[in-house]
Amino acid sequence: MAIQKEKPELVRDLFSAIAERYALVNHLLSIGLDLVWRAAAVRHVVRWKPCTLLDVATGSGDLALAIRKESPATRVIGVDFCRPMLEVARRKGLGELVEADGLHLPFATASFDAVTAAFGLRNMASWEQGLSEMARVLKPGGHLLILDFSLPTLPLIRSLYRAYLHVVLPWVAGLATGRKDAYEYLGGSIELFPSGKTMTRLIEQSGLSNACAHPLSLGTVSLYTAEKTSPAR
């Protein structure tokens, strides 16, 4: 399934339809682990002490708000191409929001000390272009953080996870949101999305350095970090 490669407008429509229940359903389906994953991301960001941070594909703003809470001196801006998601983020208290595509960020080169993207890069029509844009808007010395789903390497865990993604998750989420198709898309997008060394290579090809993968929750989710040691190519 390659919706994110061919039909970005369908991705926007799907997320628009589930925007109001997106955060609640994610919390339910992850059994609360989404809080753990965001906390791990926030710890990295706090150590970097960025003055300015761009949260790409901010969605309902959960990661951006968590960062702002733990790093109040950081100016946090959220960007997303789905207006209903941005409206949810605004109601939650995220004030600086921009409606834009992550493949064409409306910011000058070298504008931010840090760039984050939680569960958003996977949905972009081009992962390479998305990463290149994130690298472009980073200042030299700045940091990138990507948090997204991945496939476990252990065969048994991978098999169980795939069964959950393609059978259990769409059924439960469909009951909760009325849009089973949105969560059928999720499983397919995770199957296609690169992880581990494949993802760190993609990140470094965007012009960043020292890319590292940090598997979480038995590898069902991975956190990637990198830094910009030279201007984006």
Compact summary:
This protein has 233 residues and is α/β, with parallel strands linked by helices.
Topology:
Blueprint: H1 3-6, H2 8-18, H3 22-29, H4 33-48, E1 52-56, H5 62-70, E2 75-80, H6 83-92, E3 97-99, E4 112-118, H7 127-137, E5 138-149, H8 155-177, H9 180-192, H10 197-205, E6 209-216, E7 221-227
Parallel strand pairs: 1-2, 1-4, 2-3, 4-5
Antiparallel strand pairs: 5-7, 6-7
Helix pairs in contact: 4-5, 8-9
Note the main attributes of this structure.
single chain; 233 residues; alpha/beta; Rossmann fold; seven-stranded mixed beta sheet; 7 strands; 21% strand
Structure commentary:
With about 230 residues, the chain is an alpha/beta fold. The protein has one domain (about 5-225): Vaccinia Virus protein VP39 (Rossmann fold, 3-Layer(aba) Sandwich). About 50% of the residues lie in helices and about 20% in strands. It has helices spanning about 5, 10-20, 20-30, 35-50, 60-70, 85-90, 125-135, 155-175, 180-190, 195-205; strands spanning about 50-55, 75-80, 95-100, 110-120, 140-150, 210-215, 220-225. It has a seven-stranded mixed sheet, with helices on both faces. β6 (about 210-215) and β7 (about 220-225) form a beta hairpin. It is globular, with a radius of gyration of 16 Å. It starts with a helix and ends in a 6-residue tail after the last strand. Residues about 1-5 have low confidence and may be disordered.
